[in-house]
Amino acid sequence: MTSQLPLPNFDRPNAFASGNTLVVALQGWNDAGESASAAVSELQDQLDVDLLVERLEDEDYFDYTVARPRVELGGDGQRVIRWPGATIAGPVRGGRIYTLTGVEPNFRWRRYASEVIAACERVDISSIVLVGALLADAPHTRDILVYLSSDDEGPQRELDIEGSTYEGPTGVLSAIAEEAHRAGIEVVSMWASVPHYAQSPELPNPKASLSLVNELAKLLKVDISSDHLRDDASAWEERVTEAVESDDELRGYVEYLEQTRDVVDSEAATGEAIAAEFERFLADGNEPTARGGGKAQLGDLSSSAKDAPGRDDSRDDAADDGPNSDDEPDSNGEPDSSEDR
User: Fold this and answer.
1) Which terminus of the chain has fewer CB atoms gathered within 10 Å of its CB, N or C?
2) At a CB cut-off of 8 Å and minimum separation 6, what does 65 contact?
């Protein structure tokens, strides 16, 4: 069960994103369902963020047996190797939004983070948004929750968000955040909760990407059209629902998630009400710990994955299933795995 968190207040005057802002999403552990990388890619396309600032592809950063290079045909018909890496890009025709996208590095995170922040300082970046997605006990039939947090007092005050008390394993986003703090650059973390049972290597999650795009637009005060993403999200939800309906155990588990979410979202939600709903579910003979439930969810989804909206077969195979957590992410971009719910 996920605790109810206060929503960020985007209506307040927001100095956080008023200057040049770097939005970060890297394929890999931080990118369940390719949700974060797809969201930031959408941001890039619509805001025309395509001016090369820095390319990070030092071979010391990558394990090529994990993040595989790709052989492609160049414009002259010659075969070329595309090496995994990441790119910091800026606005083509003026603007204040920059992006860091690509593959999460495997090695030397501290040097990598230092290189990222050095590039930020060269283009006067004053704030960073770390975007990620984690697997969670969330129903696919409800809105995808997005959590914001920060360890900096400015964003906490302006956006009415909190810091984190998380302690545990971490990812490269935390290394970037730590280096940013040393340089005096404010950081906000934004994470989407992706339904774990609907996760499939062949099927990205456009519904989570849609939620992230909407939250980014509000935080950054930019206009982003999301109509096509909404259509993709509806098609994705229909596919997952078909798979769920074919498996009785999985269907029961999803119904439990839906009921719990509805209780948590209600204005009258209390700890006692949520506990009562949980006890009722157990009394019905269900097993809330059956992560993924039946076997239908991946097989049925993958059969139509090649035609899924938003599917990009050119993506590197480096991305794994992402962090698996029942809790909120911390302000440095990592899932909070504490048992205090």
Assistant:
1) C
2) none
122/191 Cα distance (integer angstroms): 27
Mean pLDDT of the chain: 82
Which neighbouring-strand residues pair with 190? 131, 148
What are 104's two structure tokens? 């999460």
DSSP code, position 3: -
Q: Give exposure, 176-189, as e/b (b: 16+ Cβ within 10 Å).
A: bbbbbbeeebbbbb
- Whether this prediction's pTM lies above 0.90 is answered by no
Q: Which tens digit of pLDDT belongs to each residue from 76-88? A: 889 999 999 999 9
- 225, with CB counted inside 10 A (0-12, 13-18, 19+), is exposed
Spell 290-321 as b/e; 16+ CB within 10 A means b. Answer: eeebbebbbebbeeeeeebbbbeeebbebbeb
Measure the CA–CA gap between 178 and 311, rounded to whole angstroms. 33
Alpha carbon distance 251, 259 (integer Å): 12
